[in-house]
Design goal:
The complex is a heterotrimer of chains A (239), B (207) and C (373). Chain A is an alpha/beta fold. Helices cover 47% and strands 21% of the residues of chain A. In chain A, helix 1 crosses helix 4 and helix 3 packs across helix 8. The longest helix of chain A is centred in the middle third of the chain and has 27 residues. With 207 residues, chain B is α+β, with helices and mostly antiparallel strands. In chain B, a hairpin with a 7-residue loop joins strand 4 and strand 5. Chain C has 373 residues and is mainly α. Chain C folds into 2 domains: 209 residues, no CATH class; 120 residues, Serine Threonine Protein Phosphatase 5, Tetratricopeptide repeat. A 4-stranded mixed sheet of chain C has the order 1-2-4-3, sandwiched between helices. In chain C, helix 9 runs antiparallel to helix 10, helix 11 runs antiparallel to helix 12 and helix 13 packs antiparallel against helix 14. Classes of the chains: A alpha/beta (239), B alpha+beta (207), C mainly alpha (373). Chains in contact: A-B, A-C, B-C. Chains A and B meet through helix 1, helix 4 and helix 5 of A and helix 1 of B.
């Protein structure tokens, strides 16, 4: 699928971004201070989070029960982190008449987020790096119905290696260490991004974190740590 | 949508190679397959014969321009655009190619009208579809008939926000388009005559 | 599109689960998860624009499915049959009993007994819990490699775990054979003519020959078609020996599927498959002799492939229905191209009167201007 391919590239780009800590990972709209400055209430959109099991044979299988747990953890972690940053944050549970509109916005975000990572972290389109400008289209009416000032839209994916794969990795790493060559099967990548969107639909703040094997979104504490690192660059967040 | 898969696959493959996947849209192409002016601030794929351009990333807007030889097979339909076709007939073939794409089930042709592109007779189709995740997209296809070549200029973007936002840029690209003057390579001696829009001779099963 | 699915299965014991309608049938946790996701998948397919919506046809299909499913099974798993707008010969079932059948395979069938064979097979996948068995087989095996590199004919997928992918792409050979055999038992119990049961495979074989490809991927894990025909014939000669007659309901089937066959003809024409389109259009007309839409479509097929009979078909369509939009349009185009300006003007003007918002009205106005209107 196109989205999963882009998400994979985004994960790689996120990892690469973290490999160069001198470069900030947050992306800011040129007017983010004005646009975010007066915002008090944040509606957290129920996130899409997919957790895959990485098997020894190279199988990457989505696990729905793991994904459900990770979704709950990421939602909880985002709300908690935003509150810690001084916002009045709540997880949105939209009524039926609002849900379709919110789903449309979330669907577009699932195209916008990998595009942001692709164009401003990965391929680095100069014009986009110079002026961060992405939108989900006007959401003012939606925000009025939801009773919030801005939207926070998280997205996450995680890969958990099975025992078999870990054994294979260990062997591969040992071989690589001995011979100085050889491709080692990668550990699972954990990848989370978060966008804050204002009434005009502009993505005013965006951040992404990727890590190889050291997080597990199925675990609440681990999810909180990862999301906490994400949100620490939000204006008003306590470090 | 197939081209986006290919784009993504190529991008992945190129992730560790030094050749840039994308270049500034103003970077001149060596190929003279066609001429056009891309918008400032956009990027184009670093390839010669076909042009793929975007500003924010191909999922959010994509301009795709290709040259096809008349009579050659299309991707999703066995029909072909043949020399001597009226623009409407060629548009019918292209519309059917869109409609027959298994990836965009439910694609609707919203408009189909004659158009002149680069001073050459052609057509403009507006289509709407949902991608596999359910995101609504719109697509404009200009077809240009300049035998022995047929050109397609395609603009695809999500219906929400992006399609309208970047449509003027695409229309400007289309207005700048000029067909190339190259001739197709000669057919190898033992090949069949080029296919036309007519059905090939039925085989033993009658299909 | 070439599909690459490399499935290397280590030998393992299939987890036996009592089928729906038998003692001991009880949903298990992993199965509940599959059913929940299947419902999501069903919702996505139903909203995708891929469905062929025909309430009368759906009612007919439900009636046939109902004949195959005993009450004690229906109480636990009620199949629902929908049709997808796709000319390819395929059908699949989600674990929750949602059966999807392509236009293409329905349009090839000749009677209700063939339909019952297909539905019996598909329903068995659901009642015999093949998805969860496939999921457990995959989990039990340490060396399963599944690399799927091509989209499944545009079906929007929300799932890609082994159990659910198998429900769409094909189960293991063992389960496909079980579906064939149990499906045949359902067809027999419902009183259908079993001699029709191999016809579905024969349609598939013809399709494979027509496409000049190796058996298409979704049969890669199905036993080969020839094996399936042999297996079915063996059962007819042994288990069902001496059993003749039975219901075919060819006429009712033809009537119920007449519009679908016309739709398949349109899909075939769009795909440039002229001979298949003509076959379908003529089959539609055999079931619905006064169909102006059928004659108009024959006219379209002729016009688009440069045949000489286009005008005759359009005229016949107009005789059957003076308001046939497609016929007036098609005849107008044919006359315009042949130089009959007056004739073209009359037909194209009528076309725009009948459909003022026609998507191609700009071309038509151009032609009318050229005819001196």
């Amino acid at each position: 699928m196109r989205r999963s391919v882009f998400a994979g590239m985004a994960a790689s780009a996120a990892l690469a971004a973290c490999a160069t800590p001198s470069e900030p990972s947050v992306r800011l709209h040129p007017q983010y201070k004005e646009r975010l400055g007066g915002a008090k209430s944040v509606g957290v959109v129920p996130p899409k989070v997919v957790v895959f099991e990485l098997g020894a044979g190279g199988v990457r299988e989505p696990k729905d029960d793991w994904s459900a747990a990770a979704r709950t953890n990421v939602s909880t972690a985002v709300v908690k982190s935003l509150r810690g940053a001084g916002y009045d944050a709540k997880l949105l549970e939209p009524a039926a008449d609002v849900k379709d509109d919110l789903d449309e916005v979330r669907l577009l975000y699932e195209a916008v987020a990998p595009s942001i990572v692709y164009a401003t972290y990965g391929q680095k389109f100069p014009a986009k790096v110079q002026k961060f400008d992405y939108s989900l289209g006007d959401v003012s009416k939606l925000l009025d119905r939801l009773g919030v000032d801005v939207l926070a839209i998280p997205y996450g994916s995680d890969e958990i290696s099975t025992g078999g794969r870990k054994a294979t990795q260990a062997v591969g790493m040992a071989v690589a260490a001995l011979l100085g060559v050889g491709a080692v099967q990668r550990s699972g990548v954990t990848f989370v991004n978060l966008a804050i969107v204002d009434r005009s639909g502009a993505v005013v703040w965006f951040n992404v974190r990727g890590a190889g094997g050291s997080y597990d979104l199925r675990d609440l504490a681990s999810a909180q740590e990862m999301v906490g690192r994400l949100v620490q660059d939000l204006p008003g967040a306590h470090k | 949508m197939r081209r986006l898969f290919l784009l993504a696959a190529i991008s992945l493959a190129c992730a560790t190679t030094p050749k840039p996947r994308w270049v500034d849209a103003s970077t001149p192409r060596e190929s003279r397959s066609f001429l056009l002016q891309l918008p400032e601030g956009w990027m184009r794929s670093n390839q010669e014969v076909t042009v793929v351009a975007t500003r924010d990333g191909p999922l959010l807007q994509e301009i795709f321009v290709e040259r096809l030889q008349m009579g050659k097979a299309l991707r999703n339909t066995k029909k072909t655009v043949a020399a001597g076709m009226m623009p409407q007939e060629a548009a019918e073939v292209i519309a059917d190619d869109l409609v027959s794409n298994p990836v965009t089930k439910g694609l609707q042709i919203v408009e189909n009208a004659p158009a002149t592109v680069g001073g050459t007779a052609g057509f403009r189709i507006l289509a709407a579809f949902k991608d596999r995740d359910g995101l609504k997209y719109k697509e404009v296809v200009y077809g240009v008939l300049a035998p022995p070549w047929f050109y397609r200029l395609i603009y695809t973007a999500p219906e929400r926000h992006y399609f309208d936002a970047d449509l003027p840029a695409f229309e400007a690209v289309a207005a700048s388009f000029r067909p190339g003057s190259e001739k197709p390579p000669p057919e190898p001696p033992l090949s069949k005559a080029p296919a036309s829009a007519k059905e090939p001779a039925p085989d033993a099963t009658g299909n | 599109m070439k599909r690459l699915l490399l499935l290397a299965l280590a030998a393992c014991a299939t987890t036996k689960l009592p089928p729906a309608g038998t003692a001991g049938y009880r949903l298990e946790d992993d199965e509940r998860m599959l059913l929940r996701i299947a419902s999501e998948q069903q919702a996505v397919i139903d909203k995708s624009g891929a469905l062929y919506a025909d309430p009368e046809l759906e009612a007919y299909l439900a009636q046939v499915a109902g004949k195959l499913v005993p009450p004690q099974v229906a109480a636990q798993l009620a199949p629902r049959v929908r049709v997808l707008r796709d000319f390819r010969l395929n059908a699949f079932t989600l674990p929750n009993g949602a059966v999807y059948v392509h236009c293409g395979i329905l349009a090839r069938m000749e009677n209700e007994a063939e339909l019952a064979t297909l539905l019996g097979h598909e329903i068995t996948h659901a009642t015999h819990r093949h998805s969860v068995r496939e999921l457990r087989n995959a989990s039990n095996q340490s060396s399963v490699v599944a690399a799927v590199s091509a989209p499944l004919a545009g079906i929007p997928l929300v799932i890609s775990g082994p159990g659910l992918v198998a429900s769409i792409r094909g189960y293991s050979r063992e389960m496909e054979t079980e579906a064939d055999e149990n499906g045949l038992a359902l067809v027999a119990a419902a009183g259908y003519d079993l001699s029709q049961s191999t016809h579905v495979f024969q349609h598939l074989q013809e399709s494979v020959r027509d496409e000049k490809v190796k058996e298409p991927f979704f049969y890669a894990t199905h036993p080969r078609l020839a094996e399936r025909i042999e297996n079915t014939e063996r059962l007819l000669a042994t288990t069902y020996a001496g059993r003749g007659g039975g219901v075919r309901n060819a006429e009712q089937f033809a009537k119920a599927t007449a519009q679908l066959v016309l739709e398949d003809a349109r899909l075939q024409l769009a795909a440039g498959r002229f001979a298949a389109a003509e076959r379908d259009a003529r089959k539609h007309l055999a079931a619905a002799p006064g169909s102006a839409a059928g004659e108009a479509l024959l006219g379209e097929i002729e016009r688009q492939r440069g045949g000489a009979e286009a005008a005759a078909h359009y005229r016949k369509a107009i005789q059957l229905d003076a308001g046939s939009v497609e016929a007036h349009r098609g005849l107008g185009l044919v006359l315009f191209k042949s130089g009959d300006r007056a004739g073209a003007r009359a037909e194209l003007s009528r076309y725009l009167e009948l459909r003022p918002d026609a998507p191609d009205r700009a071309y038509v106005r151009q032609y009318l201007a050229q005819t001196g209107e």
